[in-house]
């Protein structure tokens, strides 16, 4: 059984983490397959949006801890190796993908699983789902961008509480705190996530890529630098076929047909 499932339909590349017995915990195979899937999303023009979710009752429980259970007296594992070779490149790849990533958090998202969800561009979660910065429970600190995303999304006080106490945060609180876009009834999650991803897959893909670039650059920029960036990216957007189509459709009072070009 493959540890991720990938399918392309209607411009949406659906990626399902698929180790349900382990609550979709990450192992090297899953990382390698995820890398290939996100490279496909980047390179294939037919892919206009990505939908990421988990199989079974969880979204993802982070690193597979059965691979970290060292025998007494054995040398410790250098965690910087997997973080440097798998988790950090994954987060960078997702943020740099010039196409939108919708995350459907179908159940608990723990450890790196929580932060990989937060690295997505639009996060929807089932009401029964939860977000858990499980790291301090096992003597670690949040990784996979957690110490970057949490204070920026929720503020330092809430980020600190989540990281130190490692309590589960419900999907509804995650929405209230601004960590995610929306909490939805469980039965509606996948339908709504597919609908949102479908809308994005029919949208102006280039503009979406530029929106990601601008918003993700904003946290590290001065207003001056951000204004300059907006000018430069808007120039690029203005040269796109989709912009031409958008204006023409507006003037003709019809729905635009965007091609992602
Ligand atoms: O190591 C590096 O490379 C550095 C990078 C680290 C990144 C990280 O993600 S570190 C954090 C790792 N993750 C965790 O600490 C979370 C561990 N899991 C849990 O805390 C709980 O399982 C949950 C809160 C997520 C869910 O709890 P619950 O009660 O709903 O389920 P459960 O009974 O704990 O788990 C169900 C099964 O999944 C169980 O297996 P079993 O007993 O049925 O055979 C459990 O062992 C397994 N499982 C859950 N999480 C993991 C896991 N197996 C391996 N690794 C896991 N992370």
Distance between the termini: 36 Å
Q: How would you describe the shape?
A: globular
Radius of gyration: 19 Å
H-E order: EEHEEHEEHEEHHEHEHHHH
What is the topology, as strand order, of the major beta sheet?
1-2-3-5-7-10
Main structural class: alpha/beta
Number of E-type strands: 10
The major pleated sheet works out as: 6 strands, mixed
Mean pLDDT: 98
In DSSP terms (H or I, runs of 4 or more residues), the helix count works out at 10
Question: Unreliable stretches, pLDDT < 50, 5 or more residues?
Answer: none
The percentage of residues in β strands lies in 15-25%
Helix content: 40-55%
Unique ligands: ligand T3D
Describe the structure.
- The strands form two sheets. The protein has a six-stranded mixed β-sheet, sandwiched between helices. A four-stranded mixed β-sheet has the order 4-6-8-9.
- The two termini are 36 Å apart.
- The model has no long low-confidence stretch (mean pLDDT 98).
- The chain is built from ten helices and ten strands.
- The chain is globular, with a radius of gyration of 19 Å.
- Helix content is 46%, strand content 16%.
- The protein has 261 residues and is of the alpha/beta class.
- Ligand T3D binds next to helix 2 and strand 6.
Short description:
With about 260 residues, this protein is of the alpha/beta class.
Task: Give the helix/strand layout.
Elements: E1 4-9, E2 12-17, H1 28-43, E3 49-54, E4 58-60, H2 79-96, E5 101-105, E6 108-110, H3 112-118, E7 122-126, E8 130-132, H4 146-154, H5 156-165, E9 168-170, H6 171-176, E10 182-184, H7 189-201, H8 205-218, H9 223-238, H10 241-251
Helix pairs in contact: 1-2, 4-5, 8-9
Bound molecules: ligand T3D.
Ligand T3D binds at residues 22-23, 25, 61-66, 68, 79, 82-83, 87, 108, 110-112, 132, 134-135, 137-138, 140, 143.
């Amino acid at each position: 059984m493959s540890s991720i499932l990938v399918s392309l339909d209607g411009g949406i590349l659906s990626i399902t983490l698929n180790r349900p017995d382990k609550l979709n915990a990450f192992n090297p195979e899953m990382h390698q397959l995820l890398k290939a899937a996100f490279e496909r999303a980047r390179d294939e023009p037919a892919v206009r949006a990505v939908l990421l979710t988990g199989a079974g009752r969880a979204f993802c429980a982070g690193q597979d801890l059965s691979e970290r259970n060292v025998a007494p007296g054995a040398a410790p594992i250098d965690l910087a190796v997997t973080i440097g070779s798998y988790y950090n490149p994954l987060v960078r790849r997702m943020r740099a993908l010039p196409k939108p990533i919708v995350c459907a958090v179908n159940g608990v998202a723990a450890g790196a699983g929580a932060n990989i969800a937060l690295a997505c561009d639009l996060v929807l979660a089932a009401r029964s789902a939860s977000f858990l910065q499980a790291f301090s429970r096992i003597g670690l600190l949040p990784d996979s961008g957690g110490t970057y995303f949490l204070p920026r999304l929720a503020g330092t006080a809430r980020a600190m509480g989540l990281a130190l106490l490692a309590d589960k945060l419900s999907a509804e609180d995650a929405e209230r705190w601004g960590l995610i876009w929306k909490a939805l009834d469980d039965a509606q999650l996948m339908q709504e996530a597919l609908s949102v991803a479908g809308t994005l897959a029919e949208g102006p893909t280039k503009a979406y890529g530029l929106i990601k670039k601008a918003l993700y650059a904003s946290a590290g920029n001065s207003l001056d630098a951000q204004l300059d960036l907006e000018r430069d990216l808007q120039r690029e957007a203005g040269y796109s076929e989709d912009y031409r189509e958008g204006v023409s459709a507006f003037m003709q009072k019809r729905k635009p047909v965007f091609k992602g070009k």
